Amino acid sequence: MAKGSIFPKESIHRVDPKTGAQIRQITSHPSIHHHPFYYLPAYDDAMRWLVLVSYRTGTPQLFVEEQASGSLIQLTERPDLHEWSIHPSHDGRFVYFTAGTGAWRIEIESQHEECLAQFQTTRLNEAGMVAGAMGTTTLSRDDRWWAFPVKKGTNSQFHVLDTHTGKDSVILERDTICHPQFHPDDPAQLRYGGPFFDRLWIIRRDGTDHRLVYRRDVSKKEWIVHECWRPGTREILTVNWPLGVIGIHVDTGQVRPVCNFNAWHPMINRRGTLMVTDTKSPDIGLQLFDPSDSIGMPRALCFPNATNAGVHWNLGHCPYDDGVTDVYAPQHTHPHPNFSPDGRRVVFTSDASGIAQVHEVKLPV
User: Fold this and answer.
1) Nearest of 326, 8, 39 to residue 179 by alpha carbon
2) Above 70 in pLDDT, residue 10?
3) pTM of the entire structure?
4) How many other β-carbons are positioned within 10 Å of the β-carbon of residue 105?
5) Taking the CB of residue 197, how many other CB atoms lie within 10 A of it?
6) Strand order in the sheet with 267-268
7) Residue 324 pLDDT more than 80?
8) What confidence tens digit (pLDDT) does each residue in 183-223 have?
9) Can you tell me the distance from the alpha carbon of 236 to that of 129, in angstroms, rounded to the nearest whole number?
10) Best label site of 20, 70, 198, 238, fewest CB within 10 Å?
C-alpha cells in the first residue's frame, strides 16, 4: 500500500440507540484512525474531502475520504509524519503538515509533496502526549498564512510562513507554545496556549501585541484548557475544567459563563451559534449547547463511548499544580468533535469497537 493508493468505501451506517442520531462510521480497517484535533477543520470548505490519519500501513499516514464516492485515498508514505499537525487548506487544494524537522504541504489531487521549510533542530515538538507535544498547526481562513511552533533547544519558536512567497518568520520565542489558532475573521490575529499555569495568550501575526488575556485563580487550582475563538467576536471560549466553559473578551478582559457542565473539548460552528463538546468524568456523550446565552444547557447528540484515556482528568483541578506530572493520554481515544463547514454534521473519533475509527453524525434538523 503506497502513496496514491485508493481504498474502496468503508462506511457503516447506524443509529444511536439513545438519541436516534444518524451516524456514519467512515473508516473500518482494524487499525488506528483519527481526524485532526478538535478546533482544526477536518473538511475543506466545499466539503469535497475529509482529512484523516490512518495506521493501516503500519505507521500514521495522511488520507482523505472523497466525499462524492466514499473512497479513501492515501496521500503520504513516510516514516516521520507528525500526525496531529495536519491541516487541510480551506480551498481544498492542499493538506499542510509537519514531518521530521520540516514543514510540508501536499496537493490532494496530484499527491505532489512540497517542503516549505526545514529547521535546524533535532525535533519539532516537545516530548509527551499533550499540549506542545502534539505539534498542532494553524492555517488562516484565507489560506495565506500557516503558523506552528518549532522546538529550539529548551524553548519553542513561533513560526509564521507565507504560503504564497515561502517566507518564514519567527514572531516569538518562549518556554512553551501549543495549539495555535488564527482568528477565523482576522488573518493577522492568533491565539495560542502557553504553560498550564498561564495558558491563554494572543499575538499579532507580526509578533506585536503579545499578552496574557486571563490570569487564573491559583488558589482554586483552576485548570484553563481547550480553547477556541468565537467567530464574529474578540472572545476566546475556554474550558475551566471540570466546571464548564467561560468566555474571555481579549480586549476588555470581561469574563462570562458559557456553560456549567463538564465540557471537555468544546468547539463552535462557523456561524458562532452552536457548540459541540465531548465529556468525561462522567462521560455523557457528545453534547450541543448555545454559546451565547450564558447558560449553555446541554442537549445530547450521540454517545461515542470512547475510552477517553487520561486519568489526570479525574482530579478536578490542574494536575500540574501538584508538581511534575507524567501524563498518559493517547489522543486517538478522545472524540474531539468538530463541525463540518456547513454546520450540518459533526466529525468525531471513537475507539468503542476496540480500535479508533472516524465517524460523523448528522445534527437534528
Assistant:
1) 39
2) yes
3) 0.97
4) 21
5) 14
6) 267-268, 275-277, 286-289, 299-302
7) no
8) 999 999 999 999 988 999 999 999 999 999 999 999 999 99
9) 24
10) 20
C-alpha span between 224 and 2 (Å, rounded): 42
How far, CA to CA in Å, does 337 sit from each of 68, 118, 131, 277, 315? 22, 32, 17, 6, 23
Nearest to 266, CA basis, from 293, 294, 298: 298
Can you read off the three cell numbers belonging to residue 326?
507524567
Read off the pLDDT of each residue in 258-274 and give the average, rounded to a whole number.
98
Q: How far apart are CA 298 and CA 113, in angstroms?
A: 43
Distance between CA 2 and CA 282 in Å, rounded?
A: 41
Which grid cell is 318?
490542574
Interval 19-50: pLDDT, tens: 999 999 999 999 999 999 999 999 999 999 99
Amino acid at site 213: V
Structure confidence at residue 320 (pLDDT): 86
Place of cell 473539548: 265
Spacing of C-alpha 337 from chain mean position: 9
Q: Are 312 and 14 in contact (CB under 8 A)?
A: no
Enumerate the β-bridge partners of residue 162.
145
What per-residue string of b and e applies to 326-343 under the rule 16 or more CB within 10 Å gives b? ebebebbbbbbbbbbbee
